[in-house]
């Protein structure tokens, strides 16, 4: 788990790199750079972002040969939970009702879809 001062939100580039790490488990800067796809940042930007994520306590690294191999300290579920909790608190005044209502209305869920979601929640 990340440190107590872990930021609740990640920048677009940080999130892009974290998604790669969450999917792969570990990667070097070169591997992260190569896996970025169409929205690839410069190699030096990737390196800088990994240094920032390390300072924030979100990733750690181990020196293997000449390369640093980065691993996440914060799981995807931990990040999502923190992000959603912060949004609920700061945007919806802490109201789970308002939070869920926003998404239900915004996604235009059918009554059947809503029933399915409620059933899944009841089964847990």
Give a verbal description of the structure:
- The protein is mainly α.
- It folds into 2 domains: 12-72, Winged helix-like DNA-binding domain superfamily/Winged helix DNA-binding domain (Arc Repressor Mutant, subunit A), CATH 1.10.10.10; 96-124, no CATH class.
- The protein contains 6 helices and 3 strands; from the N terminus they run H-E-H-H-E-E-H-H-H.
- Strands 1-3-2 form a 3-stranded antiparallel beta sheet.
- A hairpin with a 2-residue loop joins strand 2 and strand 3.
- The protein is elongated, with a radius of gyration of 18 Å.
- The two termini are 25 Å apart.
Mean pLDDT: 90
Radius of gyration: 18 Å
Strand order, largest beta sheet = 1-3-2
Beta-strand residue percentage: 5-15%
Low-confidence stretches: none
Secondary-structure element series = HEHHEEHHH
- What is the overall silhouette? elongated
Q: Report, as a whole number of angstroms, the end-to-end distance.
A: 25 Å
Fill in the CATH topology of the largest domain: Arc Repressor Mutant, subunit A
Give the CATH H-level superfamily of the largest domain.
Winged helix-like DNA-binding domain superfamily/Winged helix DNA-binding domain
Measured as a percent range, the helix fraction is 55-70%
The CATH class of the largest domain is identified as Mainly Alpha
Mind telling me which CATH architecture of the largest domain this is?
A: Orthogonal Bundle
Structural class: mainly alpha
Count all strands and give the number: 3
The tally of helices reads 6
Q: Provide the domain count.
A: 2
């Amino acid at each position: 788990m990340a440190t107590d001062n872990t930021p609740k939100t990640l920048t677009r580039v940080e999130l892009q790199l974290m998604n790669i790490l969450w999917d792969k488990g570990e990667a070097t800067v070169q591997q992260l750079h190569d896996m970025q796809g169409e929205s690839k940042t410069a190699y030096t930007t990737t390196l800088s972002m990994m240094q920032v994520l390390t300072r924030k306590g979100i990733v750690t690294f181990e020196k293997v040969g000449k390369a640093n191999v980065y691993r996440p300290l914060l799981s995807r579920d931990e990040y999502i939970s923190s992000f959603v909790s912060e949004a609920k608190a700061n945007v919806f005044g802490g109201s789970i009702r308002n939070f869920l209502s926003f998404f239900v209305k915004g996604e235009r869920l059918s009554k059947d879809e809503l029933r399915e979601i409620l059933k899944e929640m009841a089964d847990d």
